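ARCHIVE CARD
SHELF: 3
SLOT: left
DATA:
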Amino acid sequence: MSSDAPTVRLDADGKPLGFIDHPEEHRTIRFEIAEEGIGLLTLDRPDKLNAFDERMISEIRSVVWKIAFDEAIRVLIITGAGRAFCSGRDILGLGYENNLPSPQYRAYVRANHEMLDDLENLEKPVISMVNGVCAGGGVEIAAASDFRIASERAEFILTENNIGVIPASGAASRMIEMIGIGRLKEMMMTTLPVPADVAERWGLVNRVFAPDGLMDGTLAFARVLRERAPLALGMAKHVINTCRNTDTETGRLIERLGQSVLIPTADAREGNAAFREKRKPEWSGR
């Protein structure tokens, strides 16, 4: 068997853990600790403008899975190597999947959707640090993140219409409330690039920095999140994401349920004690 073959990780009972990992070093991404509590995942195919293929999807999912279980990492930043954040799906690798019958195609592409769902559901803040070109599926990675911080040189482009298809991995479903139906139609139907300053006005981007200040600005934002109560951050993601898709009465029920989980935690007790004692809280994640 080839040493390149991916292996399925098993738990103590021999059951699959639910993600694919590669036994050797990552080839398409880099992961490092930027500073205490902050992980930095770099998409690393600069010659392809960091377009993702099956291997990159697998490697991203393996890192996100590990971060979910690493209590030392409180915040994840995603960025791209070279002049692009991510140009989306690797077009040159689409020959196989595009020739599948519709049911098999849907099953095959589900891995892409699950990667984006992993980012959205990770119970830790995820920041897309958009350093340059952000196109197609790259926009969908950014949209699945909690925050988007961009270089002044960044551009957001939904290019799929240029090859006769549509963005189909969350652009419409995640971005329609984010930027509004008219602006989303403009992006999807014209394929015109949206500069970073316009994306900020539209609500797609949270902060914009000069290129040489992008990392410092992103790390400063990440430090704010790192100092917040980790359980409450994770619950906030769940409640906000779920309330987006439900009616207001059900949303208030979800809020109460989420709060009922947090109230008895050690962190909630610590937060209340720190407030009374006028000191900085020391979160345990418990």
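SLOT: right
DATA:
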Amino acid sequence: MSRQLKVLVTGLNGVVGQALYPALKDRYEISALSRSGVNGVPPERVFKADIGDIDTLYPAMKGIDVVLNLAAGGGQSSAEGMDAGWDVMLRDNIVGAYNVLEAAKQSGVKRVILASSGAVANGYELEEPYKSLVSTEDVPLPTSWDMVNEFSEPKPVSLYGVTKLFGEDLGRYYAATTDMSVINLRISYCLKEDVAGAGRGQANWSSHRDLQQLTTLCIDAPSEIKFDIFWATSDNKKLFRDNAHAKKVLGYKPQDGVK
């Protein structure tokens, strides 16, 4: 029987972390890192630390196989959402991303999975045909549209999106210059309640169980996957954030979608 992977999750208390935890805890030995602590994880595997302070990260990294970095400023779990202040996003999304990757490298971690965001490409939604696809109004659907994949031009329209793009390229740098594998997961429309909602959710929704499946596929991916980016989306009728790459490379098989 193979050894159970040891996975450190930052930001486990957040919306995405709580959506993932039921699947992760049954499959891996989970440790958690956060500023305030985490309920439900054995106390000896809970580390109170701040990703903005690299020296606090090393105790949590000891013996870890994979780091899943969900901690962020300006995401779903932030009171201000994507309007969070620059100082918060600088600390958590730029300095924090560097600290996590650097501490992981120095600690011998084999893989880091960075939670990126659909915000890296939100600018597409200001243009047709995507504007109609995310509209809350009863507008005619376009007959066809080009998919936005991992190789499409980024179009952030918020500083949050810009900082997430920085994280993706920082991950690319670490994958190219170290022995670590780095995977960026562009988490799309995922809320505390596991429902698609109106407007953008009809196109961009990722159900909890689809996100759980894709995340575990990233954790378990073969070492040959040194660097990659995957869109985390369910198979929605209005989908334009293309999950075909995850299907081809990882064998992702979404179970849900807005029809």
